[in-house]
Design goal:
Shape: globular
Number of domains: 2
Structural class: mainly alpha
Low-confidence stretches: 1-10, 76-84
CATH class of the largest domain: Mainly Alpha
Largest sheet: 2 strands, antiparallel
Helix content: 55-70%
């Protein structure tokens, strides 16, 4: 391994890469500086290599303004094997979402579609796999689930069972696609879940969870917050006979999504208000007495994890780390689904890196890999975070082994 300050002769410095991408998009340094809320002098120093671009949050902001993934800016430091990519599986999901053929339309189906009951059982099994972090298995199931849903489920007025299955399947597709960095495709799936909800407050609330996540991934924080809060309002308006068991969990999850969206938008006041509303609701809703259903788990620990992430997005990294350590040290942390725990550890690496603690970031990634390997192996966000840890230099043996497993190797 070379030290972080040395470069291969063929490696393009990150500042030069920023300059090239900016120029290709026809942006002046001033226009680009305005978009990322920095000064023109700051941009000039970065592009000339006078100023180091090493904070992951800043790299993410710069990459977003340039319309590329953060890994593109970091690509000069590492090379990644394609074996772990999930591109083929995503294309299968994309193809399934792109088809609109209906029964009797001359499609090439060789066997009759499953019944609504069978499809609901399959969707439930896929959600269980998702919560356990078995994402490759979910990806293999999704094309058939989407296709079978299209052929089997045709909601009629008053027909709740088919609408329920459609919402479950489209939500699952949306949440997996968000993880894989396919935000546009996730938004399409979440939008279909909203349509399938057919105005039912509970189904619309479930769909809105996935919609808010997709909109946040698209950097549309305000829209994400509106979607989540609109769903909360509809649940509040529902008459008691229409309020299902588990309603507080769904409302609380939507409040958390709204808080995360507000934080991404930089609205500290709204974030604080929404987190406190969720905390008050969670005070009477213990995770240990709530069965997670279709990705909706809620309680005091989930609120504290969200509090850590909102602090991170708002730039209060010391508070984020303190809250994160307190929440993950609680017994209830271990009761959360593997997917949730691993995803949180990947997300919190940004705070460790921005505090200049790559070793803590590396430990979080290694722990996430032990909990749910697919979260690390398939998510671009995990690869980007691990790349940043490698760039910081002197990675631990565990981090080096994880990088080798993912096909991330330091260029000589």
């Amino acid at each position: 391994m070379t030290g972080p300050g040395r470069r291969n002769g063929n490696e393009l410095p990150i500042g030069r890469r920023v300059a090239q991408l900016r120029a290709r998009r026809g942006m002046s340094q001033q226009v680009f500086a305005d978009r990322i809320r920095k000064s023109k002098s700051w941009v000039d120093k970065v592009e000339r290599g006078v100023r180091t671009l090493d904070r992951l949050s800043v790299i993410e902001t710069v990459a977003g303004a340039l319309g590329v993934a953060p890994g593109v800016l970091l690509a000069g430091k590492v090379q990644r094997a394609r074996a772990a990519d999930s591109g083929g599986a995503v294309e299968g999901v994309r193809a399934a979402l792109a088809r609109y053929d209906m029964p009797g339309s001359g499609n090439d189906r060789q066997s009759p579609p499953p019944s609504v009951r069978q499809l609901d059982d399959q969707a439930g099994y896929a959600w269980t796999a998702y919560r356990n972090g078995h994402h490759p298995q979910v990806l293999r199931m999704l094309p058939d689930l989407l296709g079978d849903s299209r052929h089997t489920c045709h909601p009629q007025p008053g027909d709740a069972s088919t609408a329920e299955v459609l919402v479950r399947v489209y939500r699952l597709a949306a949440q997996v696609l968000v993880k894989l960095g396919e935000a546009d495709l996730a938004w399409l799936a979440a939008d279909r879940a909203m349509t399938a909800a057919a105005g039912d407050p509970r189904r619309a609330g479930l769909a809105a969870v996935s919609l808010a996540q997709a909109l946040r991934a698209l950097r549309r924080g305000r829209l994400a917050m509106t979607a989540a809060l609109t769903a909360v309002h509809q649940l509040d308006l529902a008459r008691p006979p229409d309020c299902p068991a588990g309603g507080p969990a769904l409302t609380g999850t939507l409040l958390i999504e709204a808080a995360l969206a507000a934080a991404v938008s930089g609205d500290a006041a709204a974030t604080a208000d929404l987190i406190e509303r969720a905390a008050r609701l969670a005070a009477t809703h213990d995770e240990r007495h709530h069965r997670d259903h279709d990705g909706v788990g809620f309680g005091p620990t989930t609120v504290e994890l969200a509090r850590a992430l909102t602090a991170m997005h708002l730039g209060d990294h010391h508070r984020a780390v303190t809250t994160h350590r307190r929440a993950t040290g609680d017994d209830a942390w271990h009761l959360l689904p593997a997917e949730h725990r691993a995803a949180h550890l990947i997300d919190i690496t940004r705070t460790h890196l921005d505090l200049g603690d790559p070793h803590a970031a590396g430990r979080a990634l290694v722990t996430a890999d032990a909990i749910a390997p697919a979260e690390i192996r398939l998510r671009p966000a995990a690869h980007t975070a691990l790349t940043a840890v490698l760039r910081a230099g002197s990675p631990t043996a565990d981090v080096t082994r994880l990088a080798a497993t993912l096909g991330l190797t330091w260029l000589p």
